[in-house]
Amino acid sequence: METLRVGIIGTGSWTQRAHIPAFLRCQNATVVGICGHGLQRTKEVAKKFNVPFACSDYKELLTREDVDAIDITTSTNRHFQVALDAVEAGKPVLCEKPLATSYKEGRILEQRARAKGVPTKMGFTFRYSPVIQRMKELVDAGFIGDPFHLNGFEQNSQFINPDTPFRWTPNPKSDPIMPGSLEEYGAHLIDLGLWLMGDLSSVVGQMRNTIPQRLIRDYGKVMPINIEDGCVWLGQFKNGALATFQTSFITVGGYPGIEIRLYGSKGALIGRLVEEFGVTETLLAATPEKVEFKPQPIPDRLYPKGYERDESWIEVQFGNLIQHFVDEILHEKEPEGGFVDGVKSEEVATAVYESHLTKRWVDLPLE
Questions:
Q1: Three-class SS string for the chain?
Q2: What is the pLDDT of residues 265-289, one digit of tens each?
Q3: Angstrom distance (rounded) from CA 332 to CA 253
Q4: What are the extents of the domains in the chain?
């Protein structure tokens, strides 16, 4: 194949804002079909982006010979069955995070994909930031030496105003607390930590519901909701390094709000993915001999083809994510950031949640 023909399952705002535009800008991919809940709305989305085929039953995409791969952008509760059916149909799969409603379901998907030899990829967008890609290169080249510490932050003020329509719905049982920022943002942060530093051996965490009443989008009224809007946890990596993590969507600051700090015996790196004053992202480095953190250049090769450095993080990171997915399939490269990484991220988040509920350290893996 010279061009990957993709079927997209999902028609939501993120599909239209990020996924479809990235595929359309990809030089060796094309979107040949899209599936959504309502056929009329799906046809409207298809017309908007010049997609030739629209349907309301995703299995129609799975059986089409002109669909080489599947992109799943549905709500989380549909990920498992849709991904499982796509894997069983032998279609390579890109799936938004989280992979499933539990890491155990995710493990089933990962095992089936591995058994059938189906390439997979998670929508871990921040892996594909040029700054994070460069950090990974420097870590692998030994820049920080023996790893000592990781500090990870994923925080912004997206829902600091309780009158902002909230996409979560209240749990009929007010106790225990529902995961919120840990589920929404922690998946990315955990993935970056594991990718840069290796597996965690144990975690301990604490959650808090700071704003107990919110305007619930699906109900159109203010309601009590016991959801975690801020979470802090500690971790120990198998290599001995220690970590602190913090996620929140009620902390004053810009979007998307990612910051990763790595410290080791030979040096330190700070990757900051926050759009501020016209700058999309920055990378800083220091050494024991030169302790002042200084900006580091990011090579042009780490940006997707045809993109400019001053484009939004959404365009650049999704451009890289989609290009990696396409190239891995067309050129039979070893998949990176696949279902196995989605399972690991979700397992760590589950351990943090369990730690909060039981007030103790939780060892990994959970089984």
A1: CCCEEEEEECCCHHHHHHHHHHHHHCCCEEEEEEECCCHHHHHHHHHHCCCCEEECCHHHHHCCCCCCEEEECCCHHHHHHHHHHHHHCCCCEEECCCCCCCHHHHHHHHHHHHHHCCCEEECCHHHHCHHHHHHHHHHHCCCCCCEEEEEEEEECCCCCCCCCCECCCCCCCCCCCECCHHHHCHHHHHHHHHHHHCCEEEEEEEEECCCCEEEECCCCEEEECCECCEEEEEEEECCCCEEEEEEECCCCCCCEEEEEEEEECCCEEEEEEECECCECCEEEEECCCCCCCEECCCCHHHCCCCCCCCCCHHHHHHHHHHHHHHHHHHCCCCCCCCHHHHHHHHHHHHHHHHHHHHCCCEECCCC
A2: 999 999 999 988 888 899 999 999 9
A3: 40
A4: 4-118, 127-305+343-363
Q: Which pLDDT tens digit goes with each residue over 282-320?
A: 999 999 999 999 999 999 999 999 999 999 999 999 999
Least confident of 27-41, 162-176, 225-239, 321-335: 162-176
Which CATH architecture fits 127-305+343-363? 2-Layer Sandwich (3.30)
Q: What is the predicted pLDDT for the residue at 365?
A: 96
d(CA 53, CA 117): 27
- Averaged pLDDT score across all residues of the chain: 96
Assigned superfamily of 4-118 = NAD(P)-binding Rossmann-like Domain (3.40.50.720)
Do 287 and 145 contact (CB within 8 A), yes or no?
no
Residue type, 22: A
pLDDT at residue 173, rounded to an integer: 80
Which residue type occupies 263? Answer: Y
The structure tokens listed for 93 are 């799969």
pLDDT digits (tens, 9 = 90+) for 45-85: 999 999 999 999 999 999 999 999 999 999 999 999 999 99
Query: φ, ψ for residue 207 (rounded to 5)?
Result: -115, 160
